[in-house]
Amino acid sequence: MKRVCVFAGSNPGTHPEYKESAIQLGKELVKKGLELVYGGSNIGLMGTIANTVLGQGGTVIGVMPTSLFRGEVVHRNLTHLYEVKDMHERKAKMGEISDAFIALPGGYGTFEEIFEFVSWGQLGIHNKPVGVLNVAGYYNPLMEMIAKAVEGGFIPSTHKELIIFESNPMILLKKLREYKPPLKTNKWSELEYK
């Protein structure tokens, strides 16, 4: 594992723990010699983790559609910035250059990004680990939703393992490094598995 892609809010959120978790994760990435891949913004939790990694002497690679430069306030001091044409190209580039994925607290964009990479893992498009830093219980409802989907027969029980939930950044990175994809399971309950 060399590069970790972090999805995070372009706002700081309402609780100080959110910002503190971005700082802790940034410091842990640098301690472990890992490069940060993220959305390229200079604001919100995105900016916090990027500035932490840069401040600790680490490598930060941003990926941002040109159309978002003003809204997300593009970070101009990154190690490298990929300018892409749209959100689809952004995620494809992040997936291509990253070895693992983590979601910090965030909104619709963060939810969409982390779920896309979990879906790709479920379909076998990649075998990279996906983690969620569950800061102050922020992602507890997501854990409940996944359990409900398993209970309801929409997610095979072994596919719960496609997302690693952890509240401690150091432990989360350790779990991502040790990740082994779950055994291949038939995602489609009505089809015979081959």
From TrEMBL:
One of its GO terms (cellular component) is cytosol. Transmembrane segments: none annotated. InterPro entries: LOG, LOG_fam. GO terms for biological process: cytokinin biosynthetic process. One of its GO terms (molecular function) is hydrolase activity, hydrolyzing N-glycosyl compounds. It comes from the Bacteria. NCBIfam families: Rossman fold protein, TIGR00730 family. Belongs to the LOG family. This is Cytokinin riboside 5'-monophosphate phosphoribohydrolase. It comes from Bacillus methanolicus (strain MGA3 / ATCC 53907).
